[in-house]
Amino acid sequence: MELLDMFRARRMNSTAVVGALATALIALSGCEAEDPASFEGETITVYVGRTPGSGGDLAARMFSRFWQEKIPGQPTIVVRNMPGGGGARVFNYGAEVADADGLHVIFSPTAGIEAVLQTPGLRANFAEMPFIGGLMSPNMAYVRTDKVGTAEELLSASDLRFGGNNPIARMDLLGRLALDALGVDYQYVTGFQGGADIFNAARRGEVDIQVASLGQYRFSIEPTLVEEGLAIPLWHNPGTGPDGEPVALDVASDIPSFEEFYEQIRGEPPSGEEYEMLRWVLPRVNDIVYAAIAPPGTPDAAVEMLRESFAAVTEDPAYQAEAETMYGFVLPPVSAEQGTQLMHSLYDVPPDVLASLTEYIDRVR
Question: Closest Cα partner for 281 from 143, 191, 172?
Fold first, then answer.
């Protein structure tokens, strides 16, 4: 089977099979639980695999302030930082050490690609850990105008430099696949510590292209580089609909989705091996960025209370207002059913797909 057909077939089969499994698991969840008890007087520890003051840390702390008010009994929530292992340490702790009593929750940026690639440092199996709720953190691509004055000129420009963190970083992988699908002539420049470092390199003219969080774009990139005429936005990475098709995000409606951008400058819908690989990878690494999950074996009744209260926070106008202030928009929520489906899809990886994806990443290691 050709690589293009392989990814297309695997993507469609995985969506159907994993979706049915996730629906069954959610339906069974809580069926043997006792009537939910209150968390009154309890302390819930939320673990985040990032350093204090980082984006992931701030997201967990802000959400937790509203969450403790929605959980029955209004328990105290304490946020504990547990960085290390490229974000894997906190999930390993949740899977292997944390008590499964409903009082311990991991709320951290996910390690989706590490699970897909079966990297040795990640021992946690997300499919065995109850998914409580999640948040998507949209991202977008922009380019400096030194070499690319309009979107259409992206295809004729040469020697563009795409700045990144490391070959398996979410935004690096999505950026490379998108640029390769478009047929852009670029060099991948890796080793930056984070999005802020890449942005500063772009300001200095050391790199031309960055895939950045939408929040970073709204607060840093748009008011400086874009409004000063030094850069233009290109596309945002879309979400995934119930049928597995890409869906443009309302929070980034002023920036075309990748599919819209591709058709705008190519004159036809996206296609090709790199695009099919992008379609397969995208939901697994991008649809959930901040995931709240519990240790394996956490009682169903506790999981259900945490799920319901998590969803209630995302609908709270006070939370939404603070999110608007913090990010410039409200992070799209991920339901327990959606999240469970996505977590199981991380392990539904046929050997041929894994081999092709690994080879693609290894090209730039």
Answer: 172
